[in-house]
């Protein structure tokens, strides 16, 4: 008697790898775009509201500096971290946007423009606080994620 072998079960195709890769790509792009925007907004001053409309550069207006880049870094980086982890359901997905954002900020702090000055100067307190608190937003999200993991166990 010959035995009839059942056909091998078909493996179901899953959207999970596509969603994971898409979530990582979107979070990396968001980290890059917000990082560039934060670097551009660090010299923003109160008088720039009027001078930007005339076509002048950001930072050319008078008045006190506005820390909009700091607020943007904290809110956007925390939101990017949440998006990366919740979209992919992988804890490690927090790493790539955090690393890219940090490398971008370090690159901006160490690169000279054609005029000889740095993109982010050492005396620009808004830029330095933006780097500190922007990275801290990723770190706080990571720390809260770690604590949630311990609480379940």
Automatic annotation (TrEMBL):
TM annotation in the entry: 18-46, 66-85, 92-110, 125-147
Keyword terms: Membrane, Transmembrane, Transmembrane helix
Protein name: Uncharacterized protein
Organism field: Paractinoplanes ferrugineus
């Amino acid at each position: 008697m010959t035995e009839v072998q059942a056909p091998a079960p078909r493996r179901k195709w899953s959207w999970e790898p596509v969603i994971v890769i898409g979530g990582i790509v979107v979070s990396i792009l968001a980290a890059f775009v917000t990082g560039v925007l934060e670097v551009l907004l660090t010299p923003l001053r109160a008088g720039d509201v009027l001078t930007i409309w005339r076509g002048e550069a950001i930072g050319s207006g008078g008045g006190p500096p506005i820390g909009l880049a700091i607020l943007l870094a904290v809110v956007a980086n925390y939101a990017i971290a949440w998006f990366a982890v919740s979209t992919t359901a992988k804890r490690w997905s927090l790493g790539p946007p955090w690393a890219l954002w940090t490398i971008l900020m370090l690159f901006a702090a160490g690169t000279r423009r054609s005029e000889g000055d740095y993109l982010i100067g050492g005396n620009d307190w808004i830029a330095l606080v933006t780097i500190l608190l922007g990275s801290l937003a990723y770190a706080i999200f990571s720390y809260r994620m770690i604590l949630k993991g311990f609480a379940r166990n």
